[in-house]
């Protein structure tokens, strides 16, 4: 059941080790400015992304929906998104298409004034699998359900390969995406394995408005599916989950590879505000986090707010110590890259 799977994903992500073995943001060192000549209290963290102004240079990335537990999480996240003027995505909305009774676990976010809401559907569901593809009518439904401004299409084929009920057909995804992009402002998102330059060029040709790299370094969905397989002792899927636990393009490298003239969201393994700043210095327009907020959003609104305030402080201190008065000034800051990321940047493109 979809509802059970979503509940499982939340519980595993909150309580188990599901991160990749190396976080590539640690391979980036920013050049410290001992004489910043910046007034900390005047630092401007606002950005304009795809015509929308956000108070901070990061998004609450697509995470969950479809269960009562997810409803509570989405409500706390939406409340914070309103308070801090940040954008918010929801988890895959296929569940809301298949079961209208759980629509409010997504639409609960409509109770809050969020600068932009991001609807979300999986690329594998755009074409026929064992079930019929998501229709144009279905996409219109989920887009309107949360008053979305943008449509995320997430590419999670590694996860599909590992999970027992996974969709294994990818033929025809891009032609369908190209049609959808004519009607909706589409953001293409990976879910932990990143995009290559070839991918980015294909996505640009398909007409997407932006790319969310979702690279290797944070949550591994192969790891999440490993634990699901372990629970039912599916040894074949356990083997696949272990084998592909660290598969993908590192997030910072994917930002570089996706620099093809489209706005970029840097995500995958971002843990704090310094990582957000690193993502922008590497070439992203903004950062994004998902699992980083999950446990706090499930615990209490107060815990979530405390966490976000710490991230904001991280961002402002990083900007101050790199002599950056606003987010645009981060674009030309110097940095050092260590291995293994250095090798990715010089050999992986």
UniProtKB/TrEMBL annotation:
Residues binding substrate, per UniProt: 5-6, 92-94, 159
Binding-site positions, Mg(2+): 160
Keywords of this entry: Cytoplasm, Flavoprotein, FMN, Isomerase, Isoprene biosynthesis, Magnesium, Metal-binding, NADP
Domain FMN-dependent dehydrogenase: residue ranges: 15-94, 196-333
Co-factor requirement: Mg(2+); NADPH; FMN
Catalyzed reactions: isopentenyl diphosphate = dimethylallyl diphosphate
Protein EC: 5.3.3.2
Major subcellular location class: cytoplasm
Positions contributing to FMN binding: 61-64, 92, 120, 189, 219, 269-271, 290-291
Pfam families per UniProt: FMN_dh (PF01070)
InterPro entries reported in the protein's UniProt record: Aldolase_TIM (IPR013785), Dihydroorotate_DH_CS (IPR001295), FMN-dep_DH (IPR000262), IPdP_isomerase (IPR011179)
EC category name: isomerase
GO biological process, one term: 'de novo' pyrimidine nucleobase biosynthetic process
Location in the cell: Cytoplasm
Gene Ontology cellular component terms for the protein in this record: cytoplasm
PROSITE patterns per UniProt: DHODEHASE_2
Molecular function (Gene Ontology), one example: NADPH binding
Function: Involved in the biosynthesis of isoprenoids. Catalyzes the 1,3-allylic rearrangement of the homoallylic substrate isopentenyl (IPP) to its allylic isomer, dimethylallyl diphosphate (DMAPP).
Subunit structure: Homooctamer. Dimer of tetramers.
Family: Belongs to the IPP isomerase type 2 family.
Protein name: Isopentenyl-diphosphate delta-isomerase
Source organism of the structure: Ferroplasma acidiphilum
Gene field: fni
């Amino acid at each position: 059941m979809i509802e059970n799977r979503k509940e499982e994903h939340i519980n595993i992500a909150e309580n188990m080790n599901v991160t990749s073995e190396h976080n590539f943001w640690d391979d980036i060192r920013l050049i410290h400015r001992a004489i910043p000549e910046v007034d900390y209290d005047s630092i401007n963290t606002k950005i304009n992304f795809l015509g929308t102004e956000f108070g901070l240079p990061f998004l609450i990335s697509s995470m969950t929906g479809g269960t009562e537990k997810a409803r509570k999480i989405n409500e706390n996240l939406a409340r914070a998104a309103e308070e801090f003027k940040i954008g918010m995505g929801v988890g895959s909305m296929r569940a809301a298409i298949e079961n209208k009774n759980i629509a409010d676990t997504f639409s609960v976010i409509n109770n809050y004034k969020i600068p932009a809401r991001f609807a979300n559907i999986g690329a594998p569901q755009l074409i026929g699998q064992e079930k019929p593809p998501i229709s144009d009518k279905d996409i219109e439904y989920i887009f309107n359900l949360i008053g979305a401004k943008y449509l995320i299409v997430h590419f999670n084929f590694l996860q599909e390969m590992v999970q027992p009920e996974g969709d294994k057909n990818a033929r025809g995804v891009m032609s369908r995406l190209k049609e959808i992009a004519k009607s909706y402002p589409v953001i293409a998102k990976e879910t932990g394995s990143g995009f290559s330059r070839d991918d980015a060029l294909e996505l640009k040709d398909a007409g997407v408005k932006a790319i969310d790299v979702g690279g290797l370094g944070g949550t591994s969905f192969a790891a999440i599916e490993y634990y699901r397989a372990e629970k039912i002792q599916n040894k074949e899927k356990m083997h696949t989950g272990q084998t592909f636990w660290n598969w993908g393009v590192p997030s910072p490298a994917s930002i570089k590879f996706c620099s093809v003239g489209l706005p970029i969201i840097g995500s995958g393994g971002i843990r704090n505000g310094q990582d957000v700043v690193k993502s922008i210095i590497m070439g992203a327009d903004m950062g994004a986090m998902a699992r980083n907020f999950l446990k706090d959003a499930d615990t209490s609104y107060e815990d979530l707010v405390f966490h976000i305030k710490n991230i904001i402080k991280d961002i402002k201190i990083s900007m101050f110590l790199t002599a950056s008065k606003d987010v645009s000034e981060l674009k030309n800051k110097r940095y050092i890259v260590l291995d293994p990321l250095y090798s990715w940047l010089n050999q992986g493109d």
